[in-house]
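Are you able to produce any protein sequence you like plus the matching backbone structure tokens because I've never seen that pairing?
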Amino acid sequence: MTTAEYLKPQPRVSHDTAPYWEALREHKLSLPKCNKCGKVSFPPRPFCPLCFDTDITYTEMSGKGTVHTFSVVYQNRAPGFAEEVPYVVGYVTLDEGPQMMSNIIGIDPAEVRIGQRVEVYFDDVTPNLTLPKFKVVQ
């Protein structure tokens, strides 16, 4: 798929979030972990949201988690989204603690349930952009 074919909005990569996006391109889920208090956080930021320390290290996560909550989208007329309805947008609680909002894919939307186990799937949507999505683990 080329960038011209990908119609959805693309994230802005900043100095503070570049390690996150670079790891995704390598098919790794890496999040900032505070070296002072140990909190792993999402979204990526240059400081710990718990103790505000700036000594953080990007750490690879297992990519496994649980569906915390979700919504099935049946209508979206925006380019790039309209062709995919219905689709699931969910909050996934990673085993390491943080919650991420993303799509839950590879399952009939009517079959998604709170509490289901999921694992990360790396969707290479353009040559320079990989998005983390989640698949239900059967």
In short: The beta strands are 30-34, 56-60, 64-73, 87-94, 99-105, 117-126, 129-136. The helical segments are 18-25.
